């Protein structure tokens, strides 16, 4: 049963739902309704789950090669399973889009379709080019925007800052994953940055993106969107992430696996605190 449940990648879904709930709370000054918020979050859950089920279906041959994914349910070449989950994916998508359309607005619906489409395109292209990560990042940043716009019904400066910040976070987060599971990616012949430019330059890329993410994440304070508690916590956590990454850059003796895992874990803490503190410590204009 657990293997069936894991097809929707529940940990990633949870992270996206946290981002979505925070998006609702950040935008609540416009006009917040609990039941509408519930249906928006339900629709986002269904659409994201649809993405991940389809991703599992499209990646089933590659997943069979990689150690960390070889036991996924769709790697067993069962035609019944493949058809069932493909139908389930599109059922979740259609139901999710219908709920979102009925409970919010066309803007949120359009953003969700954009997010789904770019994720599918990312899944196709990730076997061909490491630049696909940018498509994945565009898609992965949409849940918060969907939730925000479901209430505001407009894309404003605040939502753009949040979206770009989430986009920039995704890149060093994924590069950390690619280093953590480097052998798996090499075994499956998936093009990733370390394959093209080497480990050291990849670490430099991670550090650069974490630096830009850290700078951008404090802009909401200077724009008056959040208070001092947000600023203090954001600077503290991102400084830890920067120093952790810097250690791996300047000290070649550091274990790659331990270092990349640490960067990966801190990245998760960082983005969740960014979302939650933005919602908790926001300034109502």
TrEMBL record:
According to its record, what are the GO cellular component terms?
A: plasma membrane
Q: How does the UniProt record describe the way this protein sits in the membrane?
A: Multi-pass membrane protein
Q: Which InterPro entries match?
A: Protohaem_IX_farnesylTrfase, UbiA_prenyltransferase, UbiA_sf
What Enzyme Commission number(s) apply to this enzyme?
A: 2.5.1.141
Where's it found, cell-wise? Answer: Membrane
Q: What class of enzyme is it?
A: transferase
Query: Which ranges does the record mark as transmembrane?
Result: 12-32, 38-58, 79-100, 106-124, 160-182, 203-222, 228-250, 262-280
Any single GO molecular-function term of the entry would be:
protoheme IX farnesyltransferase activity
**Gene Ontology terms: biological process:** heme O biosynthetic process
Sorted alphabetically, the keyword list is: Cell membrane, Heme biosynthesis, Membrane, Transferase, Transmembrane, Transmembrane helix
Q: Name one Pfam family in it.
A: UbiA
Reaction equations catalysed: heme b + (2E,6E)-farnesyl diphosphate + H2O = Fe(II)-heme o + diphosphate
- What's the protein called, per UniProt? heme o synthase
Native source organism of the sequence: Riesia pediculicola (strain USDA)
